[in-house]
Amino acid sequence: MADRPVEREQRVTPLELFFDLVVVFAITQVTQLMSNDLSWRGLGHGMLVLAAIWWLWTGYAWLTNSLEPEEGVVRAGMFAAMAAMFLVALTVPRAFGGEGVLFAVGYLVVRLINLALYGRSGRGDRDLSRRLVRFATREMITPVLILAAAFVETPWPEALWVIALGAVYSDAVFGRGRDANISPSHFAERYGLIVIIALGESVISLGVAARHRSLTIGIVSASLLGILVIAALWWAYFDVLAVLTQRQLAHTSGRTQAQLARDHYRYLHLPMIAGIVLFALGLKETIGNVGEPLGAVAAVALCGGLSLHFSAHVVQRLRLVYFIRHTSSERPGYIGPGRLAAAVLTLALIPAALELPALVSLGLATAVCCGLIAWDLIHYRQDRVEVRRARP
Predict the structure, then answer these.
(1) Which comes out higher in pLDDT, residue 122 or 321?
(2) Euclidean distance between the first and final Cα of the chain, in Å?
(3) Is 290 helix (H, G, I), strand (E, B) or coil?
(4) Is 11 within 8 Å of 187 (Cβ atoms)?
């Protein structure tokens, strides 16, 4: 929610970067949760926790777009939220176990601080204050239901989590959108940094897994292939897609701008981040079993995570093309079959990953990712130059 006009082009502040350090730890803990319970149930738990943490973090990304984070009271609130978020991160591996109450209490505190800081933006504006009350009522459903989930037995915790997250994520379907002026450079930079954080979590998972084993040729090869994939994921996002989105966001305002920011950043970045986290889990299991086929869950994490990531790119590009065609006279830019092909091919690798050595499966996934980058460089050379030249 961002209803106050932004009067200048903001940049991400050191305090926001400091706050995001806790998010780095929380995302790392999600991978640990799934690694501790390498089953379909554990995978589901990890994705639910990631979705909850994502909604919490994105609330602060929107908050600091409408309030000055370095201002005294806001700064104090951010520090308090960091402490509560650290508690959330600590308890992530057992959020569906013995530390569910601590997770829920920390989550509730982080949300309450977020809503209190939003309340400062509504002082003196009666209409905005009324909207903030409605917003706060809806947002409180999630922490309350997550807290309730800590006191019931299976399968009710999972059911309550799904209901809790569905209540807030359904805003894209049932919400009417809000008039808002936001800072495109701030949004692009803040969400770009969270993508880098997720990619960094993959590097951490890779390094931690390799550190506890002798550096054989297989492990060194898997490590280098993993870095290649991570670099390809960085390139696929930052080379053009991030630049093009920021430019289009800067060319509009009001409700249209807010809806594009909501769809592209708050919603469509989540499956992209989830894909990276799943890939990190698969990469960790690959390092541990370079010469053996992956199990079903690990194979889905490794290959399916990449497929989910590239599928999110496809939807993001379709959303941008739709937006440009309906709001601008300029050419929509390239979309091409590359990312769709990468999503299909990495998904098709899952059966092979169940039979082939994990190192071979990772090698095939690396070939697909590097092939996508080569495709972009060869077939869209001029489009890339035009997009990057016209960046805001």
Answers:
(1) 321
(2) 24
(3) coil
(4) no
The number of angstroms, rounded, from the C-alpha of 62 to the middle of its chain's C-alpha atoms is: 14
Cβ 78 vs Cβ 23: under 8 Å: no
* pLDDT tens string 142-157: 999 999 999 998 889 9
Reduced to 3 states (helix: H, G, I; strand: E, B; else coil), residue 291 is coil
Q: Determine contact, residues 222/287, Cβ cutoff 8 Å.
A: yes
Contact 67, 128 (CB under 8 A): no
Q: Count other Cβ atoms within 10 Å, centred on residue 63.
A: 24
- Amino acid letter for position 16: E
How far apart are the C-alpha atoms of 205 and 298, rounded to whole Å? 14
pLDDT digits 0-9 by tens, 331-374: 555 556 889 999 999 999 999 999 999 999 999 999 999 999 99
The winner for highest mean pLDDT among 136-140, 160-164, 383-387 is 160-164
Among 352, 258, 262, smallest CA distance to 304 is for: 352
Is 359:226 a contact under the CB 8 Å cutoff?
no
pTM for this structure?
A: 0.90
The closest of 51, 30, 35, 34 to 43, measured between CA atoms, is 34
Quickly list DSSP for 57-97: HHHHHHHHHHS-TTSHHHHHHHHHHHHHHHHHHHHGGGTTT
210: confidence class by pLDDT, cuts 50, 70, 90: confident
Contacts of 164 (CB under 8 A, 6+ apart): 52, 141, 142, 143, 144, 145, 146, 149
DSSP code, position 150? T
Helix, strand, coil tally for the chain in percent (to 5): 80, 0, 20
Residue 249 tokens read as: 């966001």
Q: How far apart are alpha carbons 102 and 361 in whole angstroms?
A: 39
pLDDT-derived band at 6 (thresholds 50, 70, 90) equals very low
∠ CA 147-262-91, nearest 5°, is 25
Are 67 and 74 spatial neighbours (Cβ–Cβ below 8 Å)? yes
